[in-house]
């Protein structure tokens, strides 16, 4: 993670100053408005491969016979995408959406390595807040209550994922 800190604090600043780009001419990790976006960029990059594999698996599972039948029936490329491919990809979209939401609530490692919740606690997400309350401030009751609340949120997201996956599942 030190490499990412180097990228956001040194490399992008150098590029921004060299190309006279004001939004890159300062460290994003030191700016309260940009620090959270730096964490978002890192998380998207970190999980893009995993999500891509889920989408590729969804594409591979589309029966070739359906595509061939649509071509024979005269469906254009846009119609095939809109009426066959996208509806059959909905389970993949639902899984990646809810996995991303769950990861967003539970991210701790990237947050700790890049900003430690700073600057001015602008990137202190709920999992980091729970850890700091329970173990650093030694307020175990508050930390446990917050951890239970985090559990309820993640459980609700998981139940919503199961519900929507079953609801939007397309029979083949």
TrEMBL record:
<dbReference type="InterPro" id="IPR035906">
    <property type="entry name" value="MetI-like_sf"/>
</dbReference>
<keyword id="KW-1133">Transmembrane helix</keyword>
<keyword id="KW-1003">Cell membrane</keyword>
<feature type="transmembrane region" description="Helical">
    <location>
        <begin position="145"/>
        <end position="164"/>
    </location>
</feature>
<feature type="domain" description="ABC transmembrane type-1">
    <location>
        <begin position="1"/>
        <end position="161"/>
    </location>
</feature>
<feature type="transmembrane region" description="Helical">
    <location>
        <begin position="35"/>
        <end position="60"/>
    </location>
</feature>
<keyword id="KW-0813">Transport</keyword>
<dbReference type="InterPro" id="IPR000515">
    <property type="entry name" value="MetI-like"/>
</dbReference>
<feature type="transmembrane region" description="Helical">
    <location>
        <begin position="7"/>
        <end position="29"/>
    </location>
</feature>
<keyword id="KW-0812">Transmembrane</keyword>
<dbReference type="InterPro" id="IPR051393">
    <property type="entry name" value="ABC_transporter_permease"/>
</dbReference>
<dbReference type="GO" id="GO:0005886">
    <property type="term" value="C:plasma membrane"/>
</dbReference>
<comment type="similarity">
    <text>Belongs to the binding-protein-dependent transport system permease family.</text>
</comment>
<dbReference type="Pfam" id="PF00528">
    <property type="entry name" value="BPD_transp_1"/>
</dbReference>
<dbReference type="GO" id="GO:0055085">
    <property type="term" value="P:transmembrane transport"/>
</dbReference>
<feature type="transmembrane region" description="Helical">
    <location>
        <begin position="81"/>
        <end position="101"/>
    </location>
</feature>
<protein>
    <submittedName>
        <fullName>Sugar ABC transporter permease</fullName>
    </submittedName>
</protein>
<keyword id="KW-0472">Membrane</keyword>
